[in-house]
Amino acid sequence: MTTALLHTAESLRTRARAGRRAVVMTMGALHDGHASLIRAARRVAGPEGEVVVTVFVNPLQFGAGEDLDRYPRTLEADLKIAEQAGADAVFAPDVDEVYPGGEPQVRIGAGPMGTVLEGATRPGHFDGMLTVVAKLLHLTRPEAALFGQKDAQQLALIRRMVRDLNFDVEIVGVPTVREDDGLALSSRNRYLAPDERRTALALSQALFAGRDRHAAQEALRARAASAPATRARAAALSAIGESRAAADAHALARSGAPSATGGPAAVLASARQVLDEAARLRPPLRLDYVALVDPADFTEVRPGHSGDAVLAVAARVGSTRLIDNIPLTFGATV
């Protein structure tokens, strides 16, 4: 297939289309993670539908001192990757096409969820992101839009905007794609020198440590739930309680966090230990945050939390800022 390169909304609007249109929004510098999104969009659109990839470096979501000027622009390579992944068209508008009157005076506000974690570190970022997503949804008019789960807070805010403002579009989240060593794929990975990249692995390693701690806790919880309902149940639960206490004590000893007593606190402690060790590397990892949050509103989960959660981390290595996260599900407290 040949992927069309379009620069105006008019050229996209006048394209003949049949079936569903699925859009993948990017800022270019495409990699295997984007290709995974495009392939997922192909499945959503179906063989008779259309997949459109947008390539637009949005100035509204870059703050003062951020990397707008050095953000990679690789349109020719992007077009090739999009074509190989199954895109029908790449929509690459210039700034005047998206913002014909200059910087918009009317913008979409991200609300309370946009002020925490990434929003606290990058004030105004999510307002700019939601504004351009809304504009691109209007310009591309898709039935479905796909976004990566690596940007979990972004995905949650887009879903909230679509629900609150009655956008007629399906929002589909696609799992994070990782390199063989676990580093989440990102256009910013290309900024990392070899020694910086080794330090950057601490982000995913911290998440995996938290995930492993969580898995151990859930396994103990499942054992407790399946203990036979006989006179021996109390003894079985007591033994499991001792196992949990021992596991929690081990996690506390390794993490150096005496306030952590199991549950979400122990998961965070396991992740933080890895990040604390990475802060002593050369070059060091400089942590922005590590948090265990409710994906509905990105508030930190409480002790005894039951249900879905997101373990999220953001840090700088050298001059490069990276984010990552993994989803977790906590069972009912026994």
Topology:
Blueprint: E1 4-6, H1 9-13, E2 21-26, H2 32-45, E3 50-55, H3 75-85, E4 89-91, H4 95-98, H5 118-121, H6 125-140, E5 144-148, H7 152-164, E6 170-174, H8 194-225, H9 233-255, H10 264-278, E7 285-293, E8 307-317, E9 320-330
Parallel strand pairs: 1-4, 2-3, 2-5, 3-4, 5-6
Antiparallel strand pairs: 7-8, 8-9
Categorize the overall geometry.
globular
Strand order of the largest sheet: 1-4-3-2-5-6
Helix content percent band: 40-55%
Q: The biggest beta sheet, please?
A: 6 strands, parallel
Rg over C-alpha atoms, rounded to the nearest angstrom: 22 Å
The chain-level mean pLDDT equals: 90
Q: What is the number of beta strands? A: 9
Count the DSSP helices: 10
Cα-to-Cα separation, first versus last residue: 55 Å
- Uncertain segments of ≥5 residues (pLDDT<50)? 251-260
Q: What order do the helices and strands follow?
A: EHEHEHEHHHEHEHHHEEE
Report the structural category.
Answer: alpha/beta
As a percent range, the share of strand residues is: 15-25%
